[in-house]
């Protein structure tokens, strides 16, 4: 298992998400995807000694990232049909000459309003955040195919090409699919607990957990967009996931792992409602909507959300699996970060589930570790 140091300051250039990470040599070689050519890599860069404090920053330094000057040079082009998935994400396919018939997803972020120094700082920050997605490789984390910069005459654009998904969790939570597919939600609690415990074990914060960033492909859930949309650039306006962010994040504090737990608790509550109490969703939305009707957020509605949870409890039997999900959702949605459970504690709870808890089960998708 990786040995972790205590979290470091956010300003530390060798930290990602405010954390320093020490990993064994073989893990770093795997993260860098050079296990097959390890001897060549060691010849060029030297052996990563156990005594060194190797961090995700070191992995980023040696991870290759393409740079292009023209659109026609890109390895991926917009798909002809239904290219836009949502916002800055579009469906793409391999360029002519190497098309494999598969669709991929490309997320692009323009960097166009800063001076040269600002652009270079933005490049480093964006690439470092994207590298977290690479380092967090897991069966329930979306796979990165390529990342690159396009420097044309108009602007600099950073793009990450990932595997293409069938849908995102929003489709299931808002009942835009069949009841049969919605029934799969019960099996995904364990998968999301498992992958969150895994990335937190690496010292990584997701920083952007919400239904639209949980993808569904071949009946499995995938975490995506590890804070790439909300990187803390000094020259960019602050963005975030206001609807699902924790109260401390809403107040401007640093985003720690307990904030991920809060966001995941909000997602869990909505998954439970979609699966077993679809008629309650409208009441939940009313609890989350501000009086002026302009915002929808858990951070400013914690007390109302807990009152909503209290209204569900009388209809649940103590031994019913829904009761367990509601119990942990309530704990995850605590106002104070230190009152929320750790991801490892949640994972232990799911690993301790009994046959009588079916359809609630621990993740068994990929064997131990989900890799």
| Name of the CATH class of the largest domain | Mainly Alpha
How is the main sheet built?
A: 7 strands, mixed
Look at the helices and sheets and give the structural class: alpha+beta
Average pLDDT number: 78
Order of SSEs: EEHHHEEEEEHEEEHHHEEHHHHHH
Distance between the termini: 14 Å
Rounded radius of gyration (Å): 21 Å
Portion of residues within helices: 25-40%
Number of strands: 12
Compute the number of structural domains: 3
Q: Give the name of the CATH architecture of the largest domain.
A: Orthogonal Bundle
Q: Based on CA inertia axes, which overall geometry fits? A: globular
Helical region count?
13
Question: CATH topology of the largest domain, anyone?
Answer: Transferase(Phosphotransferase), domain 1
CATH homology group of the largest domain: Transferase(Phosphotransferase) domain 1
Beta-strand residue percentage: 5-15%
Regions with pLDDT < 50 over 5+ consecutive residues? Answer: 1-24, 31-62, 229-241
Write up what this structure looks like.
The chain is α+β, with helices and mostly antiparallel strands and 371 residues long. The chain has 3 domains: 3-62, no CATH class; 66-130 and 140-163, Phosphorylase Kinase, domain 1; 167-370, Transferase(Phosphotransferase), domain 1 (Orthogonal Bundle), CATH 1.10.510.10. Helix content is 36%, strand content 15%. The strands form 3 sheets. Strands 3, 4, 5, 6, 7, 8 and 9 form a 7-stranded mixed β-sheet that branches. It has a 3-stranded antiparallel β-sheet with strand order 10-11-12. A two-stranded antiparallel ribbon has the order 1-2. Helix 3 (56-62) packs across helix 4 (116-135). It is globular and about 60 Å long.
């Amino acid at each position: 298992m990786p040995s972790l140091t205590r979290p470091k300051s956010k300003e530390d250039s060798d930290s990602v998400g405010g954390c320093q990470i020490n990993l064994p040599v073989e893990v770093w070689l795997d993260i860098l995807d050079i296990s097959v050519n390890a001897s060549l890599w060691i010849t060029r860069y030297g052996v990563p000694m156990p005594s060194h404090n190797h961090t995700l920053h070191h992995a980023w330094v040696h991870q290759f990232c393409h740079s292009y000057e023209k659109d026609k040079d890109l390895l991926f082009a917009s798909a002809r049909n239904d290219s836009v998935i949502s916002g800055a994400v579009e469906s793409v396919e391999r360029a002519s000459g190497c098309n494999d018939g598969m669709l991929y997803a490309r997320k692009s972020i323009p960097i166009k309003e800063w001076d040269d120094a600002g652009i270079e700082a933005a490049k480093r920050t964006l690439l470092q955040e994207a590298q977290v997605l690479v380092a967090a490789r897991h069966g329930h984390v979306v796979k990165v195919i390529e990342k690159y910069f396009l420097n044309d005459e108009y602007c600099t654009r950073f793009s990450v090409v990932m595997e293409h998904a069938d849908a995102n969790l929003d489709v299931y939570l808002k009942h835009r699919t069949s009841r049969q597919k919605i029934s799969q939600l019960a099996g995904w609690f364990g998968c999301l607990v498992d992958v969150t415990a895994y990335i937190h074990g690496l010292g990584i914060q997701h920083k952007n957990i919400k239904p639209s960033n949980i993808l569904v492909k071949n009946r499995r859930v995938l975490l995506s967009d590890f804070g790439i949309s909300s990187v803390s650039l000094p020259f960019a306006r602050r963005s975030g996931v206001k609807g699902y962010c924790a109260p401390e994040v809403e107040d401007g504090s640093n985003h720690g792992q307990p904030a991920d737990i809060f966001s995941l608790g909000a997602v869990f509550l909505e998954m439970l409602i979609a699966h077993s109490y679809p008629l309650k969703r409208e009441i939940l939305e009313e609890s989350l909507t501000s009086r002026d009707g302009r915002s929808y957020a858990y951070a400013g509605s914690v007390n109302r959300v807990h009152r909503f949870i209290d209204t569900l409890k009388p209809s649940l039997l103590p031994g019913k699996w829904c009761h367990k999900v509601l119990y942990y959702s309530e704990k995850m949605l605590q106002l104070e970060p230190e009152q929320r459970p750790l991801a490892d504690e949640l994972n232990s709870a799911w690993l301790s589930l009994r046959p009588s808890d079916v359809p609630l089960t621990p993740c068994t998708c990929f064997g131990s570790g989900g890799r």
